[in-house]
Write a sequence for this structure.
């Protein structure tokens, strides 16, 4: 997955926005004001921090050692750092980004979820 594809994917979700609260290099993708993906789109290798169900996070790390690791500078129980530039199938990276978005949306207040027209 290229940086352009990753950015486009993150922004393809309902009400997703890109912000730069830390520095001009770090893209923070949010929904409802909450982070679902964090990356430096210019870094090589391309990595992205994504929210993950704790049980899935452990399984994914075991299944993809070195490519999916505990979230760098994040709560390691709930976040993974995913190497997104070719070591993993693009389909898996897309699913992990979507899962992160869905987990964040599920944690939003009900009124916000209803505005997004998602269950």
């Amino acid at each position: 997955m290229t940086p352009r594809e990753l950015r486009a994917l993150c922004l393809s979700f309902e009400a997703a926005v890109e912000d730069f609260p830390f520095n001009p290099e770090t893209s923070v993708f949010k929904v409802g004001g909450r982070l679902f993906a964090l990356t430096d789109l210019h870094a090589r290798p391309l990595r992205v921090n994504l929210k993950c169900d704790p049980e899935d996070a452990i399984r994914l790390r075991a299944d993809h050692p070195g490519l999916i690791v505990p979230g760098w500078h994040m709560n390691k129980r709930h976040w993974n750092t995913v190497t997104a530039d070719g070591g993993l199938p693009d389909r898996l990276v897309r699913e992990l980004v979507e899962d992160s978005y869905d987990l964040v949306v599920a944690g939003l207040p009900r009124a916000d979820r209803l505005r997004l027209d998602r269950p």
In short: The first strand starts at residue 17 and ends at 19.
